[in-house]
Design brief:
Layout: H1 6-43, E1 45-47, E2 53-55, H2 59-86, H3 88-96, E3 98-100, H4 107-120, E4 126-130, E5 137-140, E6 148-152, H5 153-158, H6 161-176, H7 179-211, H8 215-246, H9 250-263, H10 266-278, H11 288-291, H12 305-313, H13 319-326
Parallel strand pairs: 4-6
Antiparallel strand pairs: 1-2, 3-4, 5-6
């Protein structure tokens, strides 16, 4: 099985990373502008000579207020992004509960990774392990200092050497293709937007409780805050969909091909995927953005109507189809 198109995939992922970097501030600033737009539309106006309130939309006032807060928004979100981007390793490790795997603890895994790295001419990444009897694995990191391959104890215990080499080759290919950098960028973006939405809805809840004592005084404020909350939720949902579809499912097929070539046995990787799909681990991660790193997303294995909706928005192609393609070679 010949793996082709690596440079094309790397260039595509680099372009997509730049696109996400440009799209994120546009969405944030657009949300801020929309807030002032709605606020002015609801409350803008003046009292005429008879003392009656005349509603009037003032776009100049909206622009002035927007320009006033732009520096603060850029600084706050920029610092937030940098901290989250730099701390992505800690965030992911904390989400899945991973720890460093030493060579002394598991020389088998270390030897397989080392041999695969020598075969493809790449630096050896760090290796982490999650104490989970089920099976899963993923790659993460944004540069050589942070590139990491994480496996579960169940994966190490239940796969033979050929199958484990196929899985590890798959994850190393993600690193070689810059898939991990693209995914980390999307995780940070979606995490920031999700946090903002969460804060807005907490404000709605608190304002709602307070307004119970004085509804007339706070009625307008509640409406404005709820509108802002709805806008933020819609933008966050839209951005999540854009991110999911922007990160092509082809990256998993490319990583499968790269892993099969590295281990030299496509059937071994197919067998490993079948075993993982029957018992996927890391189900307690609790963060869907981090779970998109996994070789198989646990939600993709759900049955019934939920499996249909998960497949629509999944960043992974159907596992059965991945196995069928590998078994053709």
């Amino acid at each position: 099985m010949r793996y082709v198109g690596m440079q094309t995939q790397i260039q595509r992922n680099n372009r997509m990373s730049v696109l996400l970097l440009l799209l994120f501030p546009i969405i944030i600033l657009g949300t801020v502008y929309m807030f002032f737009f709605i606020l002015n539309a609801l409350g803008g106006g003046y009292y005429d000579a008879t003392g009656e309130w005349v509603s009037e939309f003032n776009v100049e006032e909206v622009n002035q207020e927007f320009l006033t807060v732009i520096p603060w928004v850029v600084i706050i979100v920029g610092v937030w992004f940098l901290i989250a981007y730099k701390c992505n390793t800690w965030i992911i490790n904390h989400a899945v509960g991973s720890r460093p795997l030493t060579r002394k603890e598991n020389p088998r895994v270390y030897n397989i990774v080392e041999n695969l790295c020598i075969a493809c001419g790449m630096d050896m990444p760090m290796i982490n392990v999650v104490d989970d009897p089920q099976l899963n694995a993923f790659a993460s990191g944004i540069n050589k200092k942070t590139y990491t391959v994480t496996v579960t104890t169940g994966l190490c215990d239940r796969l033979n050497d050929a199958e484990l080499a196929g899985v590890l080759g798959h994850e190393l290919t993600h690193i070689r293709n810059n898939d991990t950098r693209l995914l980390i960028t999307s995780i940070v973006f979606v995490g920031i937007i999700s946090t903002i939405v969460s804060l807005v809805f907490r404000m709605i809840w608190r304002v709602g409780l307070f307004s119970g004592r004085d509804r007339n005084k706070n009625g307008v404020s509640i409406i404005v805050v709820m509108l802002v909350g709805l806008i933020c939720a819609a933008i966050a949902y839209f951005f999540t969909l854009v991110t999911r579809f922007a990160i092509s499912r082809k990256r998993e097929y490319m990583a499968d091909a790269g892993g099969a070539e590295l281990c030299g046995d496509p059937l071994a990787l197919a067998s490993a995927l079948r075993k993982i799909s029957n018992n996927p681990g890391l189900t307690d991660c609790g963060r869907d953005d981090v779970a998109q790193l996994f070789i198989i997303h646990p939600k993709d294995m759900q049955e019934g109507i939920m499996s249909f909706f998960n497949s629509l928005f999944s960043t992974h192609p159907d596992t059965r189809k991945r196995i069928e393609i590998l078994e053709q070679f």
